């Protein structure tokens, strides 16, 4: 698991980048955390620098949009999906379980609500 | 509408075709393209493709899903005339395609030097151009780039990476002065020197020397730069000559309204060939920008189908980017000569900054970022929201 930071490190509407086998972007959208590959599948650009609009992020270089829930491109020019990763929240700390190898094809990453995993 | 012809099979033509299907058009679509290649992405031609990091296959714009477009592709065929009243497109082999609507997306071509030129002198616009130029570039080759605009600068950057010895000639005193202004033009010019590329400004090309192959470039100030290869990057010309006499109003391209409608009902124009009215500036501008070619057809196709399309405000802000010498340059908005520049972040001397262009009233109207993708993106949105607030 890759440590991302505390929930407070990722304000709503923002993203942070962490390094797994590849760079991973972790987004906070209205109380939910999503993790996807950081590099746009179209051309070399960092999606964590992109603009979040609902459950999509727009690549900062072109207008390629990716669905944060599925990693699928929702518009041209991107053709390939980015991988999604499981986000784990424990006591206010955020971790990412990187999706590797063939798993990437089969499994969608799991977002997590910011309030989840908190002790009552 | 039962049938529509799209003239032009590059980014704008493909975007128009996809937009037609996205917006529910289920009739016949004929797409005409003068290149034999299926639609491909041009920006990498001067960068990753020329450097050998991307293959021709990587440039393909179409995906397997595009088979569902069910378009009839006429590739390797050039449109030579339009009968606007009949909406008939005439091809170079005599075929006449009559449909209910026509999308003009014929793009632009590289402006050549006047007269005939010896072998080894290139322009770069197409995949075939890039293959020809790439075959001439090798370590130690002496390359002279004519024109320090974005395309020339990108080629210079890539050629340096390939081990060529590169010099750049620019007729203006300051490169990129019109789009970026003097101050920022000089900052971008500095990227050449930092990479060991000599930039000669304020001098034109008097003669390309050599026969049958280029040996030198003689400048208007009398100097002669030895050259094994020359690339000419001095702008582009819209491909609209074939429309002469068709009744479509031409004015540095095809004149259109903000939606892309031309002077002829049922005929719209998009991409590099369209001189469209822009909400952002309140004036007409012909944009040769990649994002324009992707976004403009969505509205034009809507107009053709009698629908209304409201683009996202930040999509109305003209935008382009350029990758040079390991730096990502991004520009949004439109600079006018009375603008002043303010550095919002970073340091131009370190080629890492965000600059904002302010009009005389102090309002931001454009932004230039070098390696500042995130804050640049925010500024771009801000420029768009200002537009939305004004309308």
Structure explained in plain terms:
- Chain B: Keywords: FAD, Flavoprotein, Oxidoreductase.
- Chain B: InterPro entries: FAD-oxidoreductase/Apoptosis, FAD/NAD-bd_sf, FAD/NAD-binding_dom, FAD/NAD-linked_Rdtase_dimer_sf, Reductase_C.
- Chain B: It comes from Pseudonocardia yuanmonensis.
- The complex is a heterodimer of chains A (120) and B (391).
- Chain A is 3% helix and 38% strand.
- Chain A has one helix at 103-106; strands at 2-6, 15-19, 23-29, 32-37, 51-53, 56-58, 65-67, 84-90, 93-97, 112-113.
- The longest helix of chain A has 4 residues, at 103-106.
- Chain B is 23% helix and 31% strand.
- Chain B is built from seven helices and 26 strands.
- The radius of gyration of chain B is 21 Å and the shape is globular.
- The two termini of chain B are 32 Å apart.
- Classes of the chains: A mainly beta (120), B alpha/beta (391).
- Chains A and B meet through loops of A and α6 and α7 of B.
Q: What layout of secondary structure does this protein have?
A:
The complex is a heterodimer of chains A (120) and B (391).
Chain A lengths: L1 E5 L8 E5 L3 E7 L2 E6 L13 E3 L2 E3 L6 E3 L16 E7 L2 E5 L5 H4 L5 E2 L7
Antiparallel strand pairs in A: 1-9, 2-3, 3-4, 4-8, 4-10, 5-6, 6-7, 8-9
Chain B lengths: L2 E5 L3 H12 L5 E6 L14 H4 L20 E4 L3 E5 L4 E4 L4 E3 L2 E4 L3 E3 L10 E2 L4 H10 L5 E5 L3 H12 L3 E6 L6 H18 L3 E4 L3 E5 L6 E4 L4 E3 L2 E4 L3 E3 L15 E3 L10 E3 L4 E5 L4 E4 L3 H15 L14 E6 L2 E7 L6 E8 L4 E7 L5 E7 L2 H18 L1
Parallel strand pairs in B: 1-2, 1-7, 2-3, 7-19, 9-16, 10-11, 10-16, 11-12, 18-20
Antiparallel strand pairs in B: 4-5, 5-6, 8-17, 13-14, 14-15, 20-21, 22-23, 23-26, 24-25, 25-26
Helix pairs in contact in B: 1-6
């Amino acid at each position: 698991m890759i440590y991302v930071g505390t929930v407070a490190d990722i304000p709503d509407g923002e993203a942070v980048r962490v390094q797994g086998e590849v760079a991973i972007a972790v987004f906070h959208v209205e109380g939910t955390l999503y993790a996807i590959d950081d590099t746009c599948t179209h051309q070399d650009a960092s999606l964590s620098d992109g603009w979040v609009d609902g459950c999509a992020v727009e690549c900062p270089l072109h207008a390629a949009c990716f669905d944060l829930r599925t990693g699928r491109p929702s518009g041209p020019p991107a053709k390939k999906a980015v991988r999604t990763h499981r986000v784990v929240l424990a006591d206010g700390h955020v971790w990412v379980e990187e999706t590797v190898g063939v798993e990437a094809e089969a499994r969608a990453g799991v977002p997590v609500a910011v309030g989840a995993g908190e002790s009552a | 509408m039962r049938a529509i012809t799209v003239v032009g099979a590059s980014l704008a033509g493909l975007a128009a075709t996809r937009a037609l299907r996205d917006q529910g058009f289920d009739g016949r679509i004929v797409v005409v393209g003068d290149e034999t290649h299926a639609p491909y992405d041009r920006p990498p031609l001067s960068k990753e493709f020329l450097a050998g990091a991307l293959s021709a296959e990587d440039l393909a714009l179409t995906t397997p899903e595009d088979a569902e477009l069910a378009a009839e592709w006429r590739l390797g065929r050039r449109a030579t005339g339009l009968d606007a009243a009949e909406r008939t497109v005439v091809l170079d082999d005599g075929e006449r395609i009559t449909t209910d609507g026509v999308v003009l997306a014929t793009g632009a071509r590289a402006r050549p030097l006047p007269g005939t030129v010896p072998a080894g002198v290139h322009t770069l616009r197409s995949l075939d151009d890039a293959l020809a130029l790439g075959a001439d570039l090798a370590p130690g080759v002496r390359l002279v780039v004519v024109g320090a605009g974005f395309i020339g600068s990108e080629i210079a950057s890539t050629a340096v990476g390939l081990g060529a010895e590169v010099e750049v000639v620019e007729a203006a005193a300051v490169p990129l002065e019109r789009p970026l202004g003097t101050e920022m033009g000089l900052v971008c010019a500095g990227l050449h020197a930092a990479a060991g590329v000599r930039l000669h400004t304020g001098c034109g090309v008097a003669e390309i020397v050599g026969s049958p192959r280029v040996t030198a470039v003689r400048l208007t100030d009398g100097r002669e730069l030895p050259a094994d290869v020359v690339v000419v990057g001095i702008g582009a010309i819209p491909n609209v000559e074939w429309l002469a006499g068709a009744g479509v109003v031409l004015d540095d391209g095809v004149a259109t309204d903000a939606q892309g409608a031309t002077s002829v009902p049922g005929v719209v124009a998009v991409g590099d060939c369209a001189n469209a009215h822009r909400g952002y500036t309140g004036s007409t501008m012909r944009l040769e920008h990649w994002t324009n070619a992707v976004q403009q057809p969505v509205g034009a196709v809507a107009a053709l189908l009698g629908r209304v399309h409201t683009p996202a405000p930040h999509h109305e802000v003209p935008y382009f980017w350029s990758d040079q010498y390991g730096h990502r340059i991004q520009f949004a908005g439109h600079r006018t000569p009375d603008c002043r520049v303010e550095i919002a972040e970073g340091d131009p001397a370190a080629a890492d900054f965000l600059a904002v262009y302010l009009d005389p009233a102090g309002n931001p109207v454009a932004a230039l970022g070098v390696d500042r993708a995130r804050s640049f993106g925010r500024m771009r949105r801000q420029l768009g929201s200002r537009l939305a607030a004004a309308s």
